[in-house]
Amino acid sequence: MKWTIAALILLMSGSPGVAMAEDSTQASIGDSRLTAGDVVVLEEPIDGNAFAAGSRVELRERVDRSAFLSGANVTMAGSVGRNLYAAGGEVRIEGEVKGKARAAGGKIRLSSEARIGGSAAFAGESIDVDGAVGGRLRAYGDTIVINGSVGGDVEVAGSGTPGLLTVTTVSGDARLTNLAGEVNGNTVSGDVTIAMGEASRSRLRSTSGNLGLKGRLAADARLDVESISGDVRLDLEGPIGAEFDVSSFNGDIRNCFGPKPVRTSEYAPGSEWRFREGAGAARVRIKTLNGDINICNK
Questions:
Q1: Counting C-beta atoms within 10 Å of the first and last residue's C-beta, which end of the chain has fewer, N or C?
Q2: In 171-253, which ranges are continuous DSSP H helix?
Q3: For residues 44 and 36, what is the distance between their CA atoms, to the nearest angstrom?
Q4: Model pLDDT for residues 147-203, shown as the tens digit of each residue
Q5: Domain boundaries defined on the chain
Q6: Is 107 exposed, middle or buried (0-12, 13-18, 19+ CB in 10 A)?
Q7: Which three-class secondary structure state does DSSP give residue 4?
Q8: DSSP secondary structure string, 6-47?
Q9: pLDDT digits (tens, 9 = 90+) for 264-298
């Protein structure tokens, strides 16, 4: 914050001792560079920090320290030695950030080539993560798609309005809150917990991680859950109108409403729970190989 305030003061005042370019609003403080204009393209290496603001801002070269970028359209295609802070109507991260990344805007995209060594936090209406994040990832928005590699845990908070969320994790846990609409999740060994207002579409897959979903079912909801050895927990809220198709090859099925689960065979350990509750058109399908299944209506 101190650096940002100092940069703005110097840019506006043209203080003595600050090198100003004639064809642009530019200043150098030690080994750091401050640039402002309609179109700002940083295509030379910067040994210190970089501060840039404009309608369109592009970072194409390396910044040895941290980069602070702001504009209607921001693209970071170079490399940042420490941290990246970006804000704009559209923010695209295509290069490498060795430290942490923070971005806010209307649309935020982390391309498949992008690499963030530390943690990342994004806030926007639309967030698309295809690149790699070495640490924890936090995302806040309406439409969020996370298909990239995340080394740490994933924390997602929606706006509560119907949207789209897709999350893929390997070993990190994912905590998804204040969601509505369509939610899709895939995990290998991390746990995924989802808190929704109303679920319309949801497809969840797990190898060994546990899956948990809490919320209301829309009248025509479609919930499809599969797990190999992870447990599945479904906590439904409000009146239920749905057809249930629940089965496990070698896990237990526990429910607090409806009929008791039945054995699928006299000689095999499997069990199933199939029935219709209420008059709604929703459909719930849950299948596990070894994981237990818990379903309750609160």
A1: N
A2: none
A3: 15
A4: 999 989 999 999 888 888 999 888 889 999 999 999 999 999 999 999 999 999 999
A5: 153-298
A6: middle
A7: helix
A8: HHHHHHHHT-TT----TTSEEEEETTEEEEESSEEEE-S-BS
A9: 877 778 899 999 998 879 999 999 999 999 999 97
Which residue type sits at 225? V
Max Cα distance, the chain (Å): 90
Let me know: does 158 contact 165? Beta carbons within 8 Å: yes
Our separate counts of H helices and E strands in the chain read: 1, 28
Contact call for residues 270 and 263 (beta carbons, < 8 A): yes
pLDDT, one tens digit per residue, over 97-140 is: 999 999 999 999 999 999 999 999 999 999 999 999 999 999 99
Say if residue 141's pLDDT is above 70.
Answer: yes
- Nearest-angstrom CA–CA distance, 261 and 34: 67
**65 exposed, middle or buried (CB, 10 Å; 0-12, 13-18, 19+)?**
middle
Q: Considering the entire predicted model, what is its pTM?
A: 0.86
